[in-house]
Amino acid sequence: MAVISTQYQAVVGLAGHVDHGKTALIEALTGMITARPHEQQLGMTQDLGFAHFQDDHGNTIGVVDVPGHERYLRNMVAGVWHLNVLLLVVAADEGWMPMTTSHLDVAHAMGIEDIVVCINKRDKVNAEQLAEIEDQVLEQVMERSGLLPEIVTVSALKKDNIEALRQLLIDTVQVNIARHKVIAPANSDDIAVLEPATDPLMYIDRVFVVNGIGTVLTGTLAQGQLAIGDKVRCQPSNLIGTVRSIQAYHQQLTSVSATCRVAVNVKGVGRKDIGRGQLITGINQHITLRDQCIVRLTKTATTLKVKKQRQVEVAMGTWHGTARLSYIPNTELARLVFEKPMPLLFGQRLAMIQKGGSGLQHGAEVVWTDYIFGYQKRRLYDVLNNLPHQLQPESQRQMLLVLQGYFECHDVDFKPTEQQTFIAPFCFDNQWLTDISQQVETLLGGGISMASTELCSRLRINDAVIELIMQRLKQQQKVHLSYGKWCVGQGDNEDDLPQDALNILHQIRQFGKAGLELNKVKIVGGKKWLRQLSHQKYITALDENIYFDMGVYLDLVKAVIADHQPHDRITMTDIKDRTDLSRKYSIPLANRMEKDGWVKRDDDERIILKAWH
């Protein structure tokens, strides 16, 4: 794999058993002490610590110091949720320990692909013992993760072989970045660098207030870019703020790109309104907020024998909380139900920890966040259970095409394949679009008309999609919209009316049988649009002041005529009872029916002139 030579930023995380020398190793590597004073007194890291160093070309590599004690496993997840490389530290005089296993399991569950093992304190053992530790470490990592790690031995306190560790980390970081951002076309030496996603994504790990500056949020910018003046949204609180200043690695910047440790001063967000675990996104990003999701289990504790519903602690990004876990039979899938809606992303990694304990029960990744209809479940589970091992954005799109025939896409550079049709913002499978269009024409056959909402229900498609399909069929002159309902064939389309006229029509329809009374409602555009709508028979005037939607009027006519035949007589009381209208409306209705040739007045009675067909 070719390595890109452009500027980059990256983050390395240090993990391992307590007192194996992680904090001392960071100091030797970066010259910075990450442990806080009270942590130095305790001799253990309790929360995340941060430092950084640079490669020979001025690229900055952030370093996250992860707590080693089992009580702080959730903080460990917060530290590794988005790393380029994991540096797993093992003390030569103690070897592999239980928390080394836990940290490796969590890192693997969170999808970290590049692992470097640093055997620290090599000055405390002889060469033979060091070789045994190397073999032990190699065996453990390969057995538990299937990955072949690079191994380096050092003494942090004596600054021995630190330069070799530093160079190995730089090389591994560059390979990691190249793998995710570079595509080498087949039979070509050229390298195409992919443009990184510009939408920001950052879990908050700390919030504090600086006098004279305001609220500052810190975290790892895992995706996209942030710049001064950008609007950002905090999820799930839905608060919106403006970036006023940015600091990364002790430097004031005007913009910053992933992956990077960053502190952001945000105007409009108060310290009490936001906290650790919230997600910072772009103002227009499409982030799903759901109180449940389906996950694919990627790693399961060997001691977990019985698959039954249980309460678990979920660690996701820097957030952790409780959820109810239910296994889906005969699959590697499970359902998580949270106490409140959470921001969830396709492919998002999470760890499930024994409630009240420190053991990793499952690693998992989010594969479905939408509502599931009963008829969809078995097909959905089959599709989700057969997703590719490595999830990519394209994996979700292919899954949705197989499952429902379309997916929503807001990527401005998206280009559909020959088998797809793009009608913004949806991309359709061509065969599915043909089949569903034929189903629409069949439903509307025989003179039947249906509103969009009815078509949505019959075809089990959401309203935005059915609207695009109907507009496409209208352009093909296969359907037209009349009285708020779709009809097969050509005809005048009411949705082609000017917007002012459509607004009035919509307003009249909202009144229904109550009718629109001009002396009570002010109509923008006045009688001009009312005359046009009446002329085109979208509405009808019972008198000079009362207007009904034509569909409502015809329903009332049908109720009056009912099973009567020509020459039958009907009283005003009958008309009032059959239409459930007041006398104020029933008399104008009878007069309108007389003008339209349905009835003829004879004293207090009306004579039916034609039957209802």
TrEMBL record:
Record-linked Gene3D superfamilies:
P-loop containing nucleotide triphosphate hydrolases, Translation factors, Winged helix-like DNA-binding domain superfamily/Winged helix DNA-binding domain
* Source organism per UniProt: Photobacterium piscicola
The chain's coiled-coil residues are: none
Extract the Pfam families matched here: GTP_EFTU, GTP_EFTU_D2, WHD_3rd_SelB
Report the GO molecular function annotations: translation elongation factor activity
Location in the cell reads: Cytoplasm
Identify the InterPro entries for this entry. Answer: EF-Tu_GTPase (IPR050055), EFTu-like_2 (IPR004161), P-loop_NTPase (IPR027417), SelB_WHD4 (IPR015191), Small_GTP-bd (IPR005225), T_Tr_GTP-bd_dom (IPR000795), Transl_B-barrel_sf (IPR009000), Transl_elong_SelB (IPR004535)
Q: Which gene encodes it?
A: selB
Q: What is this protein called?
A: Selenocysteine-specific elongation factor
Q: Where is the Tr-type G domain?
A: 7-177
What is the documented function of this protein?
A: Translation factor necessary for the incorporation of selenocysteine into proteins. It probably replaces EF-Tu for the insertion of selenocysteine directed by the UGA codon. SelB binds GTP and GDP.
Q: Which PROSITE patterns match?
A: G_TR_2
Keywords in alphabetical order: Cytoplasm, Elongation factor, GTP-binding, Nucleotide-binding, Protein biosynthesis
Tree of life domain: Bacteria
